[in-house]
Amino acid sequence: MRVLVTGAAGFIGSAVARALRTAGHDVAAVDALIAQAHPPGRTLPPGTDFLDVTRIDQWRDRLSGVDVVCHQAAMVGAGTSVADLPGYARNNDLGTAVTLAAMSEAGVDRLVLASSMVVYGEGRYTCPFHGEQRVGPRRPEDLDRGRFDSPCPRCGRPLAWARVGEEAPPDPRGAYAASKVAQEHYAAAWARAVDGASIALRYHNVYGPGMPRGSSYSGVAALFRSALAAGVAPEVFEDGGQMRDFVHVDDVAAANVRAVQAAGGSEPGSQRAYNICSGHPVSILQVARYVAAGAGQHIEPVVTGRHRPSDVRHVVASPDRAREELGVTASVLPERGLMAFARDPLRE
Q: What is the pTM of this model?
């Protein structure tokens, strides 16, 4: 198949384009080298053309012969400031809307969309006495007192985390998260309007070789690595017990290959979302220890107790749907991958 990959010069996009070519697909790679994702002066790699996805005039003839668009282009990051909103709205919301309009005009009706676990906000929680409970943002006064786990709204006992499935309702907590929800909604509306099919891949914490220094993709692991390189103990927020799923970029790329192959057989007018994760949750404190071990440094991380109001406590994905429907299973588990990440080459 001929696949057009947007954002193909980025950390994840370049890995996706490479994996698609290895799988035998004909890849058209495009990128706009936006400042939020690339350092000043960076040039497009060989085989990648310039395309600003927010400009409908630049799409002309780009989709000729294309079977599937693999839309990786986005502005990433925590998006904690209101000043970030226009950037996310332009690059993510408008960029996706224009991409879909261009696809409709060209008659391309298959999409694989890079989404994110941030659409969930907080993850899934259960009380041993009252079952599953939905939680809101944590209260600043609780965080200040070191009460990091959300209490059961019925009995006040700390809630336990559980794996969150794709059926969970979206609950974005920041500008980036809101833009990823918007991208999924635009794609679903497009699929219904044109009888197309969209597959949304909700990436969890992506890391691996080629990640930019200071990257927002997996910021905490990169921060731990930078601290260790300076001979400083990594600093862990809260009590270090926050649970996450870290997924290697090679597994993310492989999931995109599977999704591109599955898109052709998807039901017209549909959108299906999948968690792309390792399926092996790990605490943030353990992430710091893995990176330290991989760097060969016997430095115990410092648990600071500090917190950020916008942070969520636990987000742990269920890998079941992706495994059962796409055949996606992680090949790089966090212990091995995060230890190797301490020595992986990074992109400046």
A: 0.95
